[in-house]
């Protein structure tokens, strides 16, 4: 296997008091290969967006490493990190809040190009801006408009164009569909799928929409309360979810055909507070298979089948299923 483009090792991000912190991300590890799209899924509050922003050093980590082509980003100077920004980009969740309402689209895209010294000269940058807008399904004349003159889907396309402007190798797509109408979401999904293939982009795709993750992603990481519960290829995860939490997530996902029967996976109670997470396995307070030992041992993420990892001490529950 080739060297990962992005590798996250034992990442932790705590907020607030040092004596009683909010454990937003607590010992998360994964790797993303060049050209791969990795999905990051879990309920609200599981730490998905925090991971995405920490990976890009938009917020600083508490512990752990994020390696880009083998270099730890935490060890880079501010100057070197600024130079790398063109290689590491983000598409934000809210396309309107992430665009300066006082700037025309041409100025927003020109700013990205000028900051990184790309396509020097006004004529060259004007040509590049027109190309970017056409790449994301807009027209060159749209460059003269302000953000408020566009629909939500068009604004998200502009956000994608801004991320692509600096010719990145890696993009964090942070819930890029959640602020859009359902009728517009499919347009942005198809745009991202097309760009991924055409430009060989590497992406961390953060979403709570499992159908979109199944369509776009090569592999999936399942998060719960800042910890990884399961990692597998998309095909394997959706066909054979092994962790009880993953099974519950998939069972809760709505199906378009009412005649398709879905298994009901009951979960007890509510998500615990990240300020005081449960001891041992953080999922144990809601898990239908929890035993006393689950409160004592923090489960490690172990491979139970080729490329399929699960964090659970009760592996006898699913080892036969994994083997099948």
Briefly characterize the structure.
The chain is an alpha/beta fold and 324 residues long.
Task: State the separation between the terminal residues, measured CA to CA.
Answer: 25 Å
Please tell me how large the radius of gyration is. Answer: 21 Å
**Assembly status:** single chain
Characterize the largest beta sheet: strand count, sense, and whether it forms a barrel: 8 strands, mixed
Topology diagram in text:
Elements: E1 6-15, E2 22-32, E3 37-41, H1 48-55, E4 63-68, E5 71-72, H2 78-84, E6 88-91, H3 105-115, H4 122-135, H5 152-165, E7 170-174, H6 182-199, E8 202-206, H7 210-216, E9 219-224, E10 227-233, H8 234-239, H9 244-252, E11 301-305, E12 308-311, H10 319-323
Parallel strand pairs: 3-8, 3-9, 6-7, 7-8
Antiparallel strand pairs: 1-2, 1-4, 4-5, 9-10, 10-12, 11-12
Helix pairs in contact: 3-5, 4-5, 5-6
Describe the structure.
Helices cover 31% and strands 22% of the residues. The protein is built from 10 helices and 12 strands. It has a domain at 244-324. Helix 3 runs parallel beside helix 5, helix 4 crosses helix 5 (152-165) and helix 5 (152-165) packs parallel to helix 6. With 324 residues, it is of the alpha/beta class. Strand 1 (6-15) and strand 2 form a beta hairpin. The model has no long low-confidence stretch (mean pLDDT 90). Strands 6-7-8-3-9-10-12-11 form an 8-stranded mixed β-sheet, with helices on both faces. The chain has a 4-stranded antiparallel β-sheet with strand order 2-1-4-5, with helices on one face. The longest helix is centred in the middle third of the chain and has 18 residues, at 182-199.
């Amino acid at each position: 296997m080739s060297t990962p483009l992005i590798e996250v090792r034992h990442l932790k991000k705590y907020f607030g008091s040092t004596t009683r912190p909010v454990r937003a991300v607590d010992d998360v590890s994964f790797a993303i290969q060049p050209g791969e799209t990795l999905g990051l899924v879990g309920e609200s509050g599981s730490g998905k967006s925090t991971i995405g922003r920490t990976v890009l050093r938009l917020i600083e980590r508490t512990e752990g490493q994020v390696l880009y082509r083998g270099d730890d980003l935490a060890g880079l100077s501010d100057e070197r990190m600024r130079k790398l920004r063109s290689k590491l980009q983000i598409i934000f969740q809210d396309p309107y809040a992430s665009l300066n309402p006082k700037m025309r689209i041409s100025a927003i895209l020109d700013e990205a190009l000028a900051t990184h010294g790309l396509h020097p000269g006004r004529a060259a940058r004007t040509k590049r801006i027109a190309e970017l807008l056409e790449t994301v399904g807009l027209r060159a004349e749209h460059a003269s408009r302000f953000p408020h003159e566009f629909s939500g889907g068009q604004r998200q396309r502009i956000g994608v164009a801004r991320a692509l402007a600096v010719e990145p190798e890696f993009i964090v797509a942070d819930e890029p569909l959640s602020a859009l109408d359902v009728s517009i979401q499919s347009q942005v999904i198809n745009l991202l799928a097309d760009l991924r293939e055409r430009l060989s982009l590497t992406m961390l795709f953060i979403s709570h929409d499992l159908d979109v993750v199944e369509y776009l992603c090569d592999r999936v990481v399942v998060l719960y309360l800042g910890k990884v519960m399961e990692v597998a290829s998309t095909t394997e995860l959706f066909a054979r979810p092994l962790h009880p939490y993953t099974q519950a997530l998939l069972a809760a996902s709505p199906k378009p055909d009412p005649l398709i029967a879905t298994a009901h996976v009951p979960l007890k109670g509510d998500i615990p507070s990240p300020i005081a997470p449960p001891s041992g396995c953080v999922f144990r307070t809601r898990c239908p298979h929890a035993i006393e030992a689950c409160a004592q041992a923090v489960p490690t993420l172990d491979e139970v089948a080729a490329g399929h990892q699960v964090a659970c001490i009760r592996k006898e529950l699913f080892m036969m299923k994994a083997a099948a």
